[in-house]
Amino acid sequence: MIPLVYDVLNRWAKDDDFFSGLVKRYEPETMADLGCGTGRLTLRFAEDSKVTGIDPNEEALAVAQTKPHAENVTWRVGDSTTLETAAYDLVVMTANVSQVFLTDEAWQQVVEDAYRSLKPGGRFVFDTRNPTVRIWEQWMRDSSPDIAHVNDKTYEVHTTYGGYKNEIFSFNEAVFDGEQEIESVDLHLRFRPIDVWQASLEEVGFHVEVYGDFTWRTADSHSENVVFIAQKTL
């Protein structure tokens, strides 16, 4: 993600409504937003819970801390290993952050850390994209740049696609100010099958529920987006 343009290009949508509603549904006293980025959802969560926002991207956290009511969140540079033990009623990972963990070892570390960090009965909730829908094919048909208006300046964001291989989709995002490229990042997303995600959670002892497209309907092969709700046993 590129913090400069992230909020402008990722407006509030159905997934944000789902996760903010989920926090109201479960009423966690304490929670962590893992991979919180620029804090767009984190600050909404803080209206209903005591929240810790964690992200390895210092630039993104710097953006988050400039926003109104940022003082209501504990911001922390780090990853899942920085989660406190038995500290949270809820750990969330939104915006398909789960897909950036490319190796099985890296993902399993996240799962184990989430389990360790939860109080008994607590939940680890995250979303991901369903590989059976092959959404990357739709992305690759769109070659037009995105336009981002930030602080009275207009930027173009160009995406170059590397393609899909062995469950991993690769692409590059570059931000241009006029003709000058000012920032660029290579991105890679792992598209795991639903049963693989579920098995990784059950392996450490989670009870798992799987929902589709940011509704409370059970996910199936036609669900573009999948939400996993993994509860730590009492």
TrEMBL record:
The keyword Protein biosynthesis does not apply. Keywords: Transferase. InterPro entries: Methyltransf_25 (IPR041698), SAM-dependent_MTases_sf (IPR029063). Residues 33-122 form the Methyltransferase domain. It holds the Pfam family Methyltransf_25. One of its GO terms (molecular function) is transferase activity. This is Methyltransferase domain-containing protein. It comes from Candidatus Kurthia intestinigallinarum.
